[in-house]
Structures are given as structure tokens and as C-alpha cells.
Amino acid sequence: MTWSEYCCLYLCTRNHNDMEKLAKIKTILVAIDFTQKADSATILAIHMARRHHARIILFHNFTNFFIIDRTGRQVVGEETVSKHYKEAENSLERMKLSLQESYSDVTFLTAIGNDTIINSINKIIQSEGVDIVITGTSGKQGIRELILGSSSYQILTGTNCSVLLMPENSQQYTFEKILVPVRVLEKLNEKLAISKLIAEKNKGFISLLGVSGDEKINEIRKAFIKTRESLKGTDTEHYASFVVSNDKAVEISKASKDAEFDLIILNYQDEESWKSFFAENFFKQIINNTSVPLLFFKDSDLITEPNKEPLGYDITMPFPG
């Protein structure tokens, strides 16, 4: 081995070890809207918190309504808004106390946002060092959600950390069989590090699935082989397979159903941009066609700018003529 080859090997090994040290789940934020899907997400968060020795932030976002006329912007029914805010605050506190009594080994915190849901969550991510956001999803995309975006889809695309989508009817709280697709090249090592961490905490195994369309098959195959090789000689049990298909979401969903995986870990980087307003991108396809929890790994350098929209909803009134 030449000196340059040795240096390259040393640096690659060191970088890989550094990434594994950085892979952690110490603070979990759960989006609470007091529905059944939020209950499922909360239970999942508790199981994960116990395995990772993490704390949980129970988060609820409260949105005001405003009316705009020539006198300016005013809150609609300020007394009613204040009352509802207090009710939400009390409900969240009661939930915290009940959970703390049942799960004394987990630390629970509460937080209420009064901005757009994305801005509120991102502020907490920054101030509290949140590692992962868990939100429940019904997996249904009606016309309203298609146009406006469901809250879970907004959280997925807008928050500044990894997001785990928990299907409403799922009771999958341990992840022994983990599907890790290799479909995009960005942050692949970092995604593998968090995958190995979750496999370790769940005493589970990783199944690598290389998925490539015709356009990048050589690049994806090389990355897949490199990823597979990096798992050899480690304590992580793993399997590997490779398929060629332009319908990546369909292949991943099919593989998940055929082998009954407990969790799918995906890279947030989405190479399937909107082709038209009504087209389903990769995210919505995988959400709608998969019934297991989905963890979208999002690196910390994928920071979104705060939404400049006004707080709440504006109801604009015409000026009297």
C-alpha cells in the first residue's frame, strides 16, 4: 500500500468513525394535535426514548386568526383565542403529568408554539437541540391536503432535523427489521450511521436495497457496493439486494410489504421534483403506499429559512367605499 493510499484509507476510516459518534438521538419532539394519530406517535416516542435514553418534548402549535381592515390587523375574538390557548396548555400539561406517572424513567417537557407550525418547531429544534421529530400521519391525501399540504407533510419538508412519520394505525414500536434504500448519493454515510445506531438499539438488522433508474445506475451501484462493504466486519447484521426501476417508491413499498419490515430509513434528498401541480412526488408516493413507520434522515446543514407569512390566518375584509 502506498503512502497516499494509506492516508486516504485513514481519513475515510476516521471520518466514518466521527460520523458514528455524531449519530445520536437524545431529544425527541412529538407533534401533538390531540388526535389518535398523535397518540400513536407519542407511544412510539416513548419506546424510542427508553432505548436511546432520550428526553421527549410534547409540542402543540396554536394558530391565531386575524382580520384585516383599514384599521390594521386584529386578532379575531381575542378572548376566545386566549381561552382556547389556555385549554390547549392545560391539556398538554395533563398529558405530560399522566405520561410521567406511567413512564417515570422518561423525561417529558412541553412546548406550545404560536407561529406557523414549521417556524415554531424549528425554533425548538434550535433552542433544545432536537435530534428527531415524530409526527403521526393518516396516510391519506385528499384534495385539500394535495393543495395546501397536510401538517405531517409540512413537518417533513420544512423542519430542520430528521422526521419520523408514524402511521395512525401502526403499533410498530420496535425496529428489528430495518429497510435502508440506497437511491440517492447525498449524505449516504450519515444516513448509514443513524441506521446502524437504530439497529443497535433495537437489536435488529439492516437490509440494504439498492434502487436505481436507468439514468444513474453506475453511480448508484458503486455507492451501494461501497455501503455494503462498509458494513462487513461490523457487528451490524445486514443483507443486501439491488433492483433497477424508475418507480423507486413502488419498489421500496413492495420490498417493505414482501419482507414485512418494521421501519424504512430514507434520505430526505428528493430527486423526484414536482412534474406538475397534481403529480405525486417520491415523498407522497412512499407515504401513501407504505404502512410502516418512515424515518426521513435530514442532515443538520439542510436549514430552511423562517416562513415570512403572518402568524395565523388572515381574513381580509373589503374597505367600505
TrEMBL record:
InterPro entries: Universal_stress_UspA, UspA
SUPFAM superfamilies: Adenine nucleotide alpha hydrolases-like (SSF52402)
Highest taxon above the source species: Bacteria
UspA domain segment(s): 25-166
Family: Belongs to the universal stress protein A family.
PANTHER family found in the cross-reference section: STRESS RESPONSE PROTEIN NHAX, UNIVERSAL STRESS PROTEIN UP12
The protein's name: Nucleotide-binding universal stress protein, UspA family
